Amino acid sequence: MYGLAMAKGLMVTLKNLTKKPTTVQYPEERVKQHPRFRGEEFVWYEERCTGCASCAKYCPLGIIKIVTSPSETAPKQGDKYRLEVFDIEIQRCMFCGLCVEACPYDCLFMGSGFEQGKYSRKDMVLHVEDLRQADKHPSTFFRPQLEASGYDPRGGRPLNWREVGRESWRWHQQEKSGLRLEHSPVDTAGSQQESN
Amino acid sequence: MPIRTEPMTVNVGPQHPSTHGVFRLRITFDGEEILEVEPILGYLHRGSEKLAEERNYVQVVTLTDRLDYTSSMINNQAYCLAVEKLLGVEPPLRAKFLRTLVAELQRIASHLVAVGFFIQELGAFGTPLMYAFRSRERILDLFEMLCGARITVSYMRPGGVFADAPPDFWPALTQFMHDFAIEFNEFEQLLLENEILLVRTRGVSPLPPEMAINCSVSGPVLRASGVNWDWRKMDPYDAYDKVEFDVPVGSHWDNYDRFWVRMQEVRQSMRIIDQCVAQIEPGPVRLVDLPLVIRPEAGAEAYGRVEASKGELGFYLVSDGGIAPYRCKIRSPSLINLTVTEHLLVGWKLADMIVSLGSVDINMGEVDR
Amino acid sequence: MNCQLAADNILFENALYRVIYDAVGSFLPCWLAYVAAGLAIMLILVNAVLLGAALVTWFERRLLGRFHNRIGPNRWGPFGLLQPIADLAKLMTKEDLIPAGADKITFSLVPLVMMAPLLLMTAVIPFSKNTALANLNVGVLFILAIGSLTTVAIFMAGWSSNNRYALFGAARAVAVLISYEVPVVISLLGVVMVAGSMSLANIVQAQAIPFLLVQPLALLIFLTGMSAELNRTPFDVAEAESEIIAGYHIEYSGIKFALIFAAETGAMLVVAATIATLFLSGWVGPFAEYIGWFWFLLKTLLVLFVFVWIRATYPRLRVDQIMALSWKFLLPLSLINLAATTLEVFFLRDSAGTLATIDLWIMAGINIPLALGCIFLFGNLVPENAKVLSVRPTTVVVPAVATVEVR
Fold it and tell me: How much is the ipTM here?
């Protein structure tokens, strides 16, 4: 009969009236943020950086500016450079993570924050000093060794450069031979059924 | 003596709540009836094709995110397929399945946006839209888990995807599929047979199949016009030859069919996702032989296409041997589907105009590029 | 001085008025006391309606939020109760724009013309025993007549704004409002006939059982018609925000917009109160002598809930379909209802022309099946092709496959 589906629609909305809201009250509560989140403040480990500027070359927008000078601590000439300028123009950054992907020494990480609103464009540039002094909560984006350790950048303690791991190329080799995948979906589906 | 009337010209857009972005229509009305339509485009032009010539092959992936921002995954997929054809390489099997899986998740998300706004334009105050977005949020959460971003995902790379799914992705996906089946049933109950929706959309703005084919329309709009044409079936890419699904086809060619086809495609996408989860096997997800900076041989050309949520999305790439494409032509379905605007709108009423436009489901990011 | 209010004065039955009148009458001349008491009670009523409109805004937004699985406004005050105040403060600080080419006088008059009928309508509604401002003996007629004045304001707004969207909205609104007057008036005739009076207080008294049961068809028609007159979903074509953005009030900003908005929500409140009075037996309930206002509020809230519920669920109809619904569906239904009620009243009334409670039960027994039958009948008159859905023939046209060469 005509009109029946309309009554059904009313029932659907009435049923949803009694459900718990799916939204959260943002500043007080937050939805869960996943460890791979590509956040705003970049995490940079100077101890590892050689100043190769791969990140700057790989940035699609060219917003990373690097100026280096030869480092006195380098074992031999040309091995490592001291960073004089490392400016990241956060205002233009689109958080694609390609700089992190390009870094051959695992010294640049994505951050995990997203609440860095500023009133002036000048303040929207991350300088080398900011990067040095910032609390280091690296995102696990493109850093499987960090992800495997179960680190959660939001709520986890700051990590120093020794703790974040450095096995990017070994991971690639392992992945090539299919060794790294302990978690196949078939397993998880099985464990789901058991728990049910 | 008849009353003398005169036509009235109204600018609908570029700032109008229902033109899906900065789309402008200059419409001449006779009362509420439409006499003439002139679409005006270009308010969101960002020069994506030209920008692609300045970036290397991997960097262009970030541009494709921003074409149709409701289906970034599928854009990534189309571009990566084009580059792979250019290089003559095949991604690993697991990567193919992952791509298929996320593309179908993205198709669900995109269709939910399309259907939600379609009903919103019919005048339902937010409820179906909110229900659609409630489910879409869960999909975006899955994407965040997978690649760290929700909208501009940049998940795929030429030769695979950038990383395997984290271990907690699979239980979350299972949970989502379970919840979504319930939510979508509810959604269908609310909408699919609603009489008001039926009288508003049934028989309105039919698009005959001949016209659709002549205008090179693709995607759900073409299928709603009764043409069984889906690139996932016709030319299976990635893992689509390993999964089973049906292609819903409309029979009345009208607004309701365009809505109905999208609703059915969500169901088919759910089927595909289930099959992908069942079939996916451990393995590498990216061709590690491929360097970060790709240099195809000079003179190579390739056209990679996918069945995006809005239609056939194609990337035509020409290489001159450098690190950036010499030319990157984007065949965007939204723009080409807009060619039928005049046919759909003229002769119908103002209220139908908005709905017909919504049923084509354009996305200005893709139209103007 | 000792002033006495004449017993045939329409204000005589208003208990609150008489209290104020007696109080100020002790030291003022009688004519001044009459005016002063009138002004005092008007002040109460006007503020109550405006405050009520603000609360209805809050109620609707909160409830819609919950229908949407959201929370809704909840920052200002407990449960966000102060949200309307914050909105008002924001709107008052906005610039009050008058578009170039607008008819300034008409444009500025619109909020007042919208607000006035609304306040007048509240005058005859009995909130509790003996609390209607005026127990008018033509209350129902008064409500219908004053209520349709809003049309004028809407058309003034659309015409004077010098905006084509506004003109669309105004033309649509006038067309819809005028066609819905007819079934609404006819449906209320049934109520009036059963109650035997046009005074709202008498109608409440006459409801030994709520007219919801005695006149179900009339309630359906009145609810639908009033939804259309209030521009509420699924009939909100006059301000369809997805089509003509905001319709007739597209050009209004600042305090004028606030007034128009208050008038709209206030009208919803008043209509809900009217429905509660006419069909849900108003303030009648247990202990009505003491807490009649509570029952009245409860019933009004119930009707408001239905309004919001409908808004949360349905899409909008097109203008021509709304007209068709009015003329092809509601008008015949209201005539059937009128005819049935006439016959029932004719055969059931006693020699004095009144109906006993048992008569009302008999009428309910006849009218409820009648209403269901009519809806069923009209529901099945709709052409078949519009309702089919799940099983669909697929006439598939497959174009000749062009050979696509892919390199």
Answer: 0.84
